Amino acid sequence: MKKSFLAASIIALAGNAFAGGYLTNTNQSIYFLRNPARDASIGIDGVYYNPAGAAFYNDGFHIQFNWQNAHQKRDAYASYPIPVLPSPLFKYNFGNPSPNEDGGREFTGRVDVPIQPSLFALYNTGDWSFQFGFGVIGGGGNCEFEHGVGMFEALVGSKALAALGKEGFGGYSMEGYVNGKSYYFGGTFTVARKLSEKLSVSLGLRGIYATNNYTGHIKNIKFGMRTGLADNPLVVIDQTQNPALADLELDCDQKGFGIAPIIGLDWKAADWVNIAAKVEFKTKLRVESEAHNNAAFDALAGSNPAFAAYTDGAKTPCDMPTIAAIGAQFMPTEALRLNVGYHHYFDMDTKQWTKDMVGNTNEIVFGAEYDISEMFEISAGLQRTIYDQTDDNISDMSFNMTSFCYGFGIGVRVSPAIKLNAAYFQTFYDDYNKTEYLDPANTMVKSTTKYSRTNRVIGLGIDISF
Contact at 8 Å (CB) between 23 and 239? Predict the structure, then answer.
């Protein structure tokens, strides 16, 4: 289990800066940012959300461009009280002692995505619809922990305590840094057909190319030893006295490719009700590592299987889960559309997570669109994502918590062939508190960590019809 836990943590380090499951980005269009309940909507972005329903869109060629900007902040406030010492561990970092009374320290990671593009193309002729979509289906960001993460500092501090003993322990110091980039580029080809004026079906195929990069280091490690002299001075031990304190440097690129089918159905149950369903089947994805780590890191990986995935030639599972979605759109008036949807992520069937780490994720969405006039359209919506997970799936490098999102925006039709879209999307995450021993086999160092996140996305888009 520990091997899977750390592997999944580092794989997800760059994380999902957007809406959706652990790895899946569902905010593929500005329409979604305006109203995340897109499952039964009829539109150009139906290429992603409702491919069967897109067959009911106007005949002709239609294209949509989307540009999104995302910013996410991840905070982990960690404290490591030690029963054999009078103060928590971070108080003994003589290079950077914790200034807080409880000995805790906050480690902050930031995910910035300046430009996140997506493209949808739709050609409808008679009963047939031919569709193409491209976007960042998973990952989609660069997450940097400028000062490393708490578990890395705690490992160094506990190693110093174990090496020097309670009487000789005088502290430690180190410099930490972690950075992760992850992009899952997805291209989807779909054919849909209207079987009648009320029913349509679709069949698509999505190819996903994954590229990840992880860099980090723990360097300038020093131990502080107390002598037995009367004034008990601190003697600093560094690499010149102990080669075991060598820097650890991680530099790993991972690449992989996978394919999965997608099926859809759209049913006009009544003139004012549309119902749609879609299943994206699991993408079996294995990434292969090309690593340029230093010898000390590779030596650590040789003795610790948890780090083996980041050595040269290693292959690691990064499956995208099966997703089942169903939605309905109600049109009480010609100008008003009310939407509701439900998504189920089959995370337990993926290879990278074990069943004692996660259950399946559930998501519900609500939204409304209103045509103020032929030129202006406004919309807004809500999303609730509920994760089923244990502490084993939460780490300093990767923590996904149950969340609540809202989005709103406007569409402006500047001509019969051109429509502009703008939106704002905000996510609020539940805090998560975790208490554990740094090493379950050694109950000397106990950690308490509070995890929190914030996220916001703004977007602009354009629809063009020919």
Answer: no
Residue 319 is given by DSSP the state P
Top-level CATH class of 2-465? mainly beta
Q: Is 388 exposed, middle or buried (0-12, 13-18, 19+ CB in 10 A)?
A: middle
Pick the closest to residue 438 from 220, 161, 23 (CA basis). Answer: 161
Structure tokens at 87: 């103060």
Predicted confidence band of residue 5 (pLDDT cuts 50, 70, 90): very low
User: How many CA atoms within 13 Å lie on the side-chain side of 367?
Assistant: 33
The CA-CA-CA angle for residues 342, 40, 386, to 5°, reads 15
Structure tokens at 133: 């979509």
pLDDT by residue (tens digit) across 367-404? Answer: 999 999 999 999 999 999 999 988 777 777 677 889 99
3-state secondary structure of 260: strand
* Mean per-residue pLDDT of the chain: 89
Given the structure tokens 């039709």, which residue do they identify?
413
CB neighbours (10 Å) of residue 435? Answer: 10
State the pTM of this model: 0.89
Helices (H), 263-363: 295-303
Measured distance between the N- and C-terminal CA atoms of the chain, rounded to whole angstroms: 54
- Helix-then-strand count for the chain, H and E: 5, 18
**Band of residue 80 on the pLDDT scale cut at 50, 70, 90:** confident
Tell me if 407 sits within 8 A of 381, measured CB to CB. Answer: yes
Tracing tokens 């859809």 back to the chain, one arrives at: 264
| pLDDT above 90 coverage of the chain, percent | 65
The Cα 290–Cα 267 span in angstroms is 48
Distance CA 238, CA 348 (A): 45
Q: What distances in angstroms separate CA 248 from CA 111, 149, 225, 298, one per listed residue?
A: 24, 14, 22, 9
The per-residue pLDDT for range 333-367, each reduced to its tens digit, is 999 999 999 999 999 888 887 778 888 999 999 99
Beta bridge partners of 251: 215
Structural tokens at position 278? 């879609």
Give residue limits of the domains in the chain: 2-465
Tokens of 345: 């992520």
